[in-house]
Amino acid sequence: MNLLLDGIAWILDPANWTGVGSIPERIAQHLAISATVLVISALIALPIGTLVGHTGRGKELVVTVSGGLRALPTLGLLTLLALWLGIGLQAPIIALVVLALPPLLAGAYSGLESVDRRTVDAARAMGMREGQIIGKVEVPLGMPIIVGGIRSATLQIIATATLAAYIADDGLGRFIFAGLKTRDYAEMLGGSILVILLALAIDGLFAIIQRLVVPAGVRATRTRELRSRPPRPRAVVGRPITEGNPE
Amino acid sequence: MIEFRGVTKQFPDGTVAVAGVDIVVPPRKTTVFVGSSGSGKTTLLRMINRMVDPTAGQVLIDGTDVATLEPVGLRRGIGYVMQNSGLLPHRKVIDNVATVPLLRGEKKAVAHARALELLDTVGLDRSLADKYPSQLSGGQQQRVGVARGLAVDPNILLMDEPFGAVDPIVRAELQQELLRLQGELGKTVVFVTHDIDEAFLLGDQVVIMQHGGQISQAASPAEILANPADDFVADFVGANRGKRALHLTEVDGRRIVVDDDGRPAGVLAS
């Protein structure tokens, strides 16, 4: 508990809020890295995920590849890339992009997939081009799920961007690594708390955005819509599982 | 006029949905394809606007093979009404009705003005224009679907079980409405249903399909009842039984029409 108070005291110490390597500067760096990573990974993943969701083709490949990417340990990948690319921001940015791709891909293709096939069929039968079906029907209707993917990717990026400080003088991770080296646990904990707060704040922001992008006509019946219910009733609700426990 | 010439559709998995169909759909009349599920009736309908391409044979509209036409342009010129209306849930009623004119590059004001007129045409109050589809009843949604199908004033209107998902009272209402509309507009309507009563009510020509995608009989309802082509048709339309096997009995000097079960169906007008 004392350590936690020390950490908070470190954050509140005005000396840490000015000068080179101050808290605001580190937060700005952290956000800049995260934003860069998000933009790069979104530019790669959203078009691919959209195409997969629209055509229904290549889903297995994408699931396999993104499952593989998910399994890569980011720290290991970062070390490997750093040995190859040297000190600097390239290695952490690439490692973080790899981390962010799976949730973005999944969000994009499941967002488009979630749109009622009959609606898509009607749009096509009316004479919409494939691009118009994507842009005017599938993306607007799938937007909450697509944004959900972006939200989850962003949370992971912000939390993991601390690792950038492992090989570059950047981001909130600096406090953690510096504190570790100098056994200044107050600084280490203070840095960690800042990362947590930043992640929560950005996640909260995305939660709001996610609500805002629900299309108006859909919001009206969201609770009545069949598809938004879980596919199978949850066994534990109101009725305990009796398996292996015969009455 | 729409003409099917030796049209066959075999899906990649080997299923034959339509097998060698020859049929002419006359202009400005209603042709109803009727059959049980798996009879290929929807596949036939979807070949007209190239939602499905035949594996053999030709579909011609006014003598032009649709295979030579660009699908998007073709579809924008043909009205399409489907089951469950197929409305875009995130767009207001008026935008749904105006979708195709806007796709064709019409000005928004013009398209919206026309959309409001179409709401009148299909018997909907203009106050519904700013609602979303989910705020309407099933019958109202279906009317919006019809209005959308009519938005570009197409010569051909394709209707794929449009009244299949509404309750019987609303269905009867919509059927009467379609008869009225067809009387006023005189479109070439191609209608798909599995309900033989609906087919007889709406169709100038009724095409009875059997499993495997073959036509059993294509004729007017009266001809089919008078002269069913085979046992399948006779059985399908129920010509020999139930409420279609009517006969006369005399009660208190008046001639009463009763059905096969002896239930009175009406009085014979003299």
UniProtKB/TrEMBL annotation, chain A:
Residue ranges constituting the ABC transmembrane type-1 domain according to the UniProt record: 27-206
UniProt-listed Gene3D superfamilies: MetI-like
Chain intervals for the UniProt region annotation (Disordered): 223-247
Any Pfam family hit: BPD_transp_1
GO cellular component: a single term: plasma membrane
Keyword vocabulary terms for this entry: Membrane, Transmembrane, Transmembrane helix, Transport
Signal peptide from the UniProt entry: none
Topology term for the membrane: Multi-pass membrane protein
Domain of life: Bacteria
Keyword set includes Magnesium: no
Transmembrane segments: 27-49, 61-87, 93-112, 145-168, 188-209
PANTHER family (UniProt xref): GLYCINE BETAINE/L-PROLINE TRANSPORT SYSTEM PERMEASE PROTEIN PROW, POSSIBLE OSMOPROTECTANT (GLYCINE BETAINE_CARNITINE_CHOLINE_L-PROLINE) TRANSPORT INTEGRAL MEMBRANE PROTEIN ABC TRANSPORTER PROZ
Recorded family membership: Belongs to the binding-protein-dependent transport system permease family.
Protein name in the entry: Osmoprotectant transport system permease protein
Organism: Agromyces cerinus subsp. cerinus
UniProtKB/TrEMBL annotation, chain B:
PROSITE patterns: ABC_TRANSPORTER_1 (PS00211), ABC_TRANSPORTER_2 (PS50893)
Pfam families registered for this protein in UniProt: ABC_tran
Segments passing through the bilayer: none
EC number(s) reported in the record: 7.6.2.9
EC category name: translocase
The entry's keywords: ATP-binding, Nucleotide-binding, Transport
An example molecular function term from Gene Ontology annotations: ATP hydrolysis activity
ABC transporter domain: residues covered: 2-237
Name assigned to this protein: ABC-type quaternary amine transporter
